C-alpha cells in the first residue's frame, strides 16, 4: 500500500523538477540571456531574423530604455554585423541571418548604455529541434 502512494508522489516531483528546468528558457521559446539587471530573450524568427526582447523579473517584456545591442554572425565566410532596429521591447534584425543551413556562432553584446562595458553572449546557432524539449538546439533547456 505504501509503495502505491509513493510512486505518484515521485512522478509529481519529477514533473515539478521538469517544469522548473523549462523556466530557464525564454518565454517565447528562445534562448534566455542572463544579462543584468534585465535578462533578455534571443529568438530566431521563421524568417531567420533575430529578435532581442528585454524581460523584467517576472519575465514580462519591457522597454529597452538606453540599452544598446550589437549582434555579430560568425559564419565561415566571415564575421557579419547585423543591423538592428529598436522596437518597443528590444531590437530586431533588419536582415535575415546569413548562410542558411550552416551552424555557426552568433555573438550578442548588450550594453546598459552607449558608454557601458558590453555583456557578451556567445550562441551556437543550431536551429535543428532538440529531440527532448522540442525547442531549437540554440534554445535547448535540457540539462545534458
Ligand atoms: Zn532540449
Give the structure's gist in a few sentences:
The chain has 144 residues and is α+β, with helices and mostly antiparallel strands.
What proportion of the residues form beta strands (DSSP E)? 25-35%
- Supply the number of helical segments: 1
* Unique ligands: zinc ion
H-E order? HEEEEEEEEE
Attribute tags:
single chain, 144 residues, alpha+beta, Immunoglobulin-like, five-stranded antiparallel beta sheet, four-stranded antiparallel beta sheet, 9 strands, globular, binds zinc ion
SSE diagram, text form:
Layout: H1 2-22, E1 31-33, E2 39-44, E3 50-55, E4 68-74, E5 80-82, E6 84-87, E7 90-93, E8 105-111, E9 119-124
Antiparallel strand pairs: 1-2, 2-3, 3-7, 4-5, 4-8, 6-7, 8-9
The structure holds zinc ion.
How would you characterize this protein structure?
The protein is of the alpha+beta class and 144 residues long. It has a single domain, classed as Immunoglobulin-like (Sandwich). It is 15% helix and 32% strand. It is built from one helix and nine strands, in the order H-E-E-E-E-E-E-E-E-E. It has a five-stranded antiparallel β-sheet with strand order 1-2-3-7-6, with no helix packed on it. About 9% of the residues have low confidence. The site of zinc ion (ZN) has 7 residues, from loops.
Amino acid at each position: 500500500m505504501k509503495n502505491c502512494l509513493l510512486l505518484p508522489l515521485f512522478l509529481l516531483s519529477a514533473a515539478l523538477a521538469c517544469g522548473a528546468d523549462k523556466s530557464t528558457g525564454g518565454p517565447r521559446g528562445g534562448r534566455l540571456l542572463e544579462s543584468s539587471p534585465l535578462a533578455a530573450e534571443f529568438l530566431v524568427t521563421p524568417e531567420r531574423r533575430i529578435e532581442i526582447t528585454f524581460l523584467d523579473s517576472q519575465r514580462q517584456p519591457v522597454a529597452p530604455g538606453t540599452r544598446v545591442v550589437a549582434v555579430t554572425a560568425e559564419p565561415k565566410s566571415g564575421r557579419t554585423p547585423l543591423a538592428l532596429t529598436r522596437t518597443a521591447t528590444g531590437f530586431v534584425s533588419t536582415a535575415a541571418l546569413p548562410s542558411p543551413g550552416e551552424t555557426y556562432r552568433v555573438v550578442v553584446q548588450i550594453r546598459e548604455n552607449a558608454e557601458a562595458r558590453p555583456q557578451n553572449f556567445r550562441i551556437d546557432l543550431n536551429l535543428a529541434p532538440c529531440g527532448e524539449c522540442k525547442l531549437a538546439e540554440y534554445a535547448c533547456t535540457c540539462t545534458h
